[in-house]
Amino acid sequence: MENILVAGANGTTGRKIVHLLNTSQYFKPFAMVRKKEQIEQFKNQGIGTVLADLEDDISHATIGMDKVIFAAGSGGKKVVAVDQDGAKKLIDASIQSKVKKFVMLSSLGAENPNEAEDLKEYLQAKHNADEYLKKSNLTYTIVRPGSLTDEKGTGTIKLEKKLMEKGFISREDVAQTLVRSLHDDAAVNQTFEIIEGNELIGKALDKVS
């Protein structure tokens, strides 16, 4: 089993990722949390935790980890400090720890933030983090979903390297896509966009693998 660090584990999407990993036969999740009081909920489920704040030194966070999922977000409050610089710090730590794969949760629109009508600062931060990851020597997958919903997942998506439309997608289906992207042969050094659709997630990922 591979040890997977989940940054943003306490977020809405992050908790779904951790749950999926915890039921996987391939992966063992480690929830990266910012506050000591967040440890208990994961401990109760038998899930390991790493105490680390993306705004501080996080060089210890990736020690002993095989792969990383970055699903953290500031909710628009500290986009440069968390979404951009926090991601960069975790990428640096991953390089030091010789992490085998880094899976980034990005956003639709991060390719060309200047074209966005709103959320420009957020999309620019995501863009900068994505570019930093691409230029690192890490094996990566960058997943750019449309607007996230709390609807039940369908297990199906629409995936393209560049979608010609905006759209919505459930957090569950995003979590599933991120976890599947952890596999060694899935979407290696690829960036792609996803919204709700009719293609099975595994089959959709084959297109970029």
TrEMBL record:
Residues 8-184 form the NAD(P)-binding domain. InterPro entries: NAD(P)-bd_dom (IPR016040), NAD(P)-bd_dom_sf (IPR036291). It comes from the Bacteria. It holds the Pfam family NAD_binding_10. This is SDR family oxidoreductase. It comes from Maribacter chungangensis.
